[in-house]
């Protein structure tokens, strides 16, 4: 007899010997599972309800951006308008009121751009605005003094008399601890302002960022995970986009070679362009992906750990052809997958609809599905779009802008069941002093005690329509189980990671988890070199040799040395023609992992760094004075001939020492004793991997 639940029965026997009851049960289970799979694959259709619609009824809005201007835990909203006074909405427990006049930011000039950031590191967000050309300079910087704002543009060196301002981004480009400023322009060379004590100086031309193409959007992120910020710039009117790889503070446009020059749109089509590039980890692999909102078909490119990108626009269902102003990605239904809002262009003569895509995961593919509700389609929104939890219920709400006079600039409250709405975590990334100066930082959330990645988010470094918000990142969760939160910030040319373990999402249902990331104090970074002969540990000295140390660490962080080799051993016996003899071993990356990834670096002379080539010193191999790239060597015994003024190299400039061995010199000496042909180790000693060690 079979037991089904608590019912007992005598089974009938089929012709093939199976029980008829058993076959019925099996068929029922199969049908149920098929139905369940079909239902689970159906995308959630979220519901949106307008918040204070009378307050947000005005049209003519362009840019919008969020920040907590009074530090009360509620996100406030700035909206820039096309010639009517701008508005600043103060949020008190989910209820908004316009305080722009009393706060001093009710400018009536057409405002195309807005960026919030704590530029003076005093704990509250300051505001940069970008105006269309007209009466007076086109940039205006307001310092926040207790939710009252003071114009400090001239004192900060940001007086720009003319230019079609588009994307501004505050970002610490040079890793010195203060926020620099990038500004994209539609009609002149882009600018990069270096911040020195609160005074900004344009250095774009000297670092390779004074691009004169018709730029609109821009976003910063560390695409190679090598310790410095790279820049993707969206260009219009048939101009190719620019992807500027950061090579130790100098920028090289590599958009063509990595496949991002056109962002999914037509090649050299004068009527097409990219307006907004959005960076997000769409496929939950921990690597940044890129969505491009285009005039022309939109684009989605999945990033890989080696710095390459793969076009999946059509396969993922987002290559819709039209005109689109902006994009915003967020997990709005808390299923662990990022969803996407794309804002259509609205002009006096035409209107391209908006799209709300949610992720639909099935056994066959993972793609975006259009679930745009009718009440969003009726808004004729354009330009600004932001996701933010404005009412503290754990769910992200939608803020839009509408440029037409008859449009509005609504906040649409996302309605989720309470249990699902609370299934989220917000993370606020701060520096060691508790200030929000770490734009571009990466937040990864793992299942507690594991390396099972649940989500990756990026602190805003360019978003919406020519905007930058200053707010926590939001992570939707599929359960309320504890998680580990890992924050990686770029500081002094290094990727500095802080982890908070076993975070209970329920404990942060009404507030953000605050994570402080401290800059390295000593400027010395431990690194572990694992070889087939054993392990070598070193300290890399970025305080005294910042260029060489940063260069070495970016190869480490990009995994270029993994699978590399120690290929040269120099001993007293194998350099008979040299009058000045040395003893070193030389190693480098696997050639296929490097290619033309990083440019060569300037020589840091020991005369300037104070370092010397002693027993165990780590130094950069080179030919000409400024030719070092990836190969390095380790000294066996003191080697003064390699210092500045030494005669191992005919130019007398020496080599760039940048670290020292702290353990494993026996392994170094064993590698030096390897069989050689001339000075080539035969066979080479494999480098299994080089990684950062624990601090």
* Major beta sheet summary: 8 strands, antiparallel, barrel
> What fraction of the residues are assigned to beta strands by DSSP?
35-45%
Helix count, DSSP H or I runs of 4 or more residues: 8
What strand line-up does the widest sheet have? 39-40-45-43-44-42-41-47
Mean pLDDT: 90
Structural Rg: 28 Å
The low-confidence parts are 1-41
Total beta strand runs: 47
Task: Report, as a whole number of angstroms, the end-to-end distance.
Answer: 65 Å
- Please state the structural category: mainly beta
Q: Helical residue percent? A: under 10%
Seen as an oligomer or otherwise, the chain set is single chain
What would the principal axes of the Cα set say about the shape?
elongated
Word description of this protein:
The chain is mostly beta strands and 695 residues long. Helices cover 9% and strands 39% of the residues. The strands form eleven sheets. It has an eight-stranded antiparallel barrel. It is elongated and about 85 Å long.
A few lines on this structure:
The chain is mainly beta and 695 residues long. The chain is built from eight helices and 47 strands. Residues 1-41 have low confidence and may be disordered.
List the helices and strands and how they pair.
Blueprint (H helix, E strand, L loop, with lengths): L1 E3 L2 E3 L10 H22 L5 E4 L10 E7 L8 E6 L5 E6 L2 E4 L1 H4 L7 E7 L8 E6 L7 E6 L4 E3 L13 E7 L8 E6 L5 E6 L2 E4 L1 H4 L7 E7 L8 E6 L6 E6 L2 E4 L19 E8 L8 E7 L3 E5 L5 E3 L12 E7 L8 E6 L10 E7 L4 E5 L3 H4 L7 E4 L8 E4 L10 E5 L2 H4 L2 E8 L10 E6 L5 E6 L8 E2 L4 E4 L6 E9 L2 E10 L9 E5 L6 E8 L2 E8 L4 H12 L7 E6 L13 E5 L17 H4 L7 E4 L11 E4 L20 E8 L1 H8 L3 E2 L2 E13 L3
Parallel strand pairs: 8-34, 31-38
Antiparallel strand pairs: 1-2, 3-30, 4-5, 5-6, 6-7, 8-9, 9-10, 10-11, 12-13, 13-14, 14-15, 16-17, 17-18, 18-19, 20-21, 21-22, 22-23, 24-25, 25-26, 26-27, 28-29, 29-30, 31-35, 32-33, 32-36, 36-37, 39-40, 39-47, 40-45, 41-42, 41-47, 42-44, 43-44, 43-45, 46-47
């Amino acid at each position: 007899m079979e037991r089904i639940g608590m019912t007992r029965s005598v089974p009938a026997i089929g012709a093939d010997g199976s029980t008829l009851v058993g076959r019925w049960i099996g068929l029922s289970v199969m049908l149920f599972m098929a139905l369940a799979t079909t239902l689970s694959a159906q995308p959630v259709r979220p519901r949106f309800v307008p918040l204070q619609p009378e307050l947000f009824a005005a049209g003519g809005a362009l840019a919008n951006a969020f920040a907590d201007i009074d530090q009360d835990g509620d996100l406030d909203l700035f909206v820039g308008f096309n010639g009517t006074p701008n508005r600043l909405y103060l949020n008190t427990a989910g209820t908004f009121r316009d305080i722009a006049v009393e706060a001093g930011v009710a400018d009536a000039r057409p405002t195309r751009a807005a960026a919030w950031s704590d530029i003076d590191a005093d704990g509250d967000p300051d505001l940069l605005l970008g105006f269309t050309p007209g009466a007076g300079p086109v940039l205006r910087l307001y310092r926040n003094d207790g939710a009252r704002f003071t114009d400090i543009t001239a004192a900060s060196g940001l007086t720009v008399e003319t230019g079609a301002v588009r994307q501004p981004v505050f970002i610490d480009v040079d890793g010195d601890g203060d926020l620099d400023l990038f500004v994209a322009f539609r009609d002149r060379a882009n600018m990069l302002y270096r911040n020195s004590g609160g005074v900004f100086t344009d250095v774009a031309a000297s670092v390779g960022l004074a691009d004169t193409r018709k730029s609109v959007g821009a976003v910063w992120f560390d695409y190679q995970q090598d310790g410095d910020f790279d820049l993707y710039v969206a260009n219009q009117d048939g101009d190719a986009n620019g992807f500027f790889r950061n090579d130790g503070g100098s920028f090289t446009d590599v958009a063509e070679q990595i496949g991002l020059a056109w962002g999914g749109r037509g090649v050299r089509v004068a009527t097409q362009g990219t307006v907004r590039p959005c960076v997000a980890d769409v496929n939950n692999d921990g690597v940044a992906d890129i969505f491009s909102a285009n005039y022309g078909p939109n684009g989605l490119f999945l990033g890989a750990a080696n710095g390459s990108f793969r076009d999946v626009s059509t396969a993922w269902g987002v290559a819709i052809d039209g005109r689109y102003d902006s994009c915003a990605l967020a997990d709005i239904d808390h299923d662990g997958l990022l969803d996407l809002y794309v804002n259509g262009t609205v002009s006096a003569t035409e209107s391209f609809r908006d799209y709300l895509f949610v992720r639909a995961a099935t056994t066959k593919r993972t793609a975006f599905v259009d679930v745009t509700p009718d009440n969003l389609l009726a808004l004729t929104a354009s330009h600004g779009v932001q996701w933010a939890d404005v009412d503290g219920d754990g769910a992200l709400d939608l803020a839009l802008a509408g440029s037409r006079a008859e449009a509005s600039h609504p906040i649409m409250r996302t309605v989720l069941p309470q249990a699902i709405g609370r299934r989220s975590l917000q993370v606020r990334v701060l520096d060691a002093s508790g200030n929000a100066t770490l734009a571009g930082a990466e937040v990864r959330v793992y299942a507690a005690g594991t390396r099972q990645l649940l989500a990756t988010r990026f602190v805003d470094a360019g978003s919406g329509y020519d905007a930058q918000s200053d707010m926590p990142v939001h992570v939707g969760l599929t359960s309320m189980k504890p998680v580990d939160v890992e924050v990686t910030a770029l500081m002094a040319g290094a990727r500095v990671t802080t982890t908070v373990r076993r975070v209970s999402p329920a404990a942060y249902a009404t507030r953000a988890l605050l994570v402080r990331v401290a800059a390295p104090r000593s400027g010395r970074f431990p690194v572990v070199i694992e070889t087939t002969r054993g392990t070598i540990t070193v300290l890399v000295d970025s305080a005294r040799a910042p260029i060489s140390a940063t260069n070495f660490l970016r190869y480490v962080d990009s995994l270029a040395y993994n699978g590399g080799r120690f290929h040269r051993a120099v001993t007293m016996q194998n350099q008979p023609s040299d009058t000045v003899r040395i003893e070193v071993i030389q190693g480098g990356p696997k050639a296929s992992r490097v290619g033309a990834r990083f440019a060569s670096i300037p020589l840091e002379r020991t005369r300037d760094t104070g370092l010397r080539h002693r027993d165990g010193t780590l130094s950069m191999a080179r030919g000409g004075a400024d030719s070092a790239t990836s190969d390095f060597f380790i000294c066996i015994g003191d080697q003064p001939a390699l210092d500045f003024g030494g005669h191992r190299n005919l130019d007398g400039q020496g080599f760039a020492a940048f670290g020292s061995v702290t353990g494993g010199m026996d392994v170094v000496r064993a590698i030096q004793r390897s069989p050689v042909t001339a000075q080539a180790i035969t066979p080479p000693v494999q480098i299994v991997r080089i990684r950062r060690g624990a601090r």
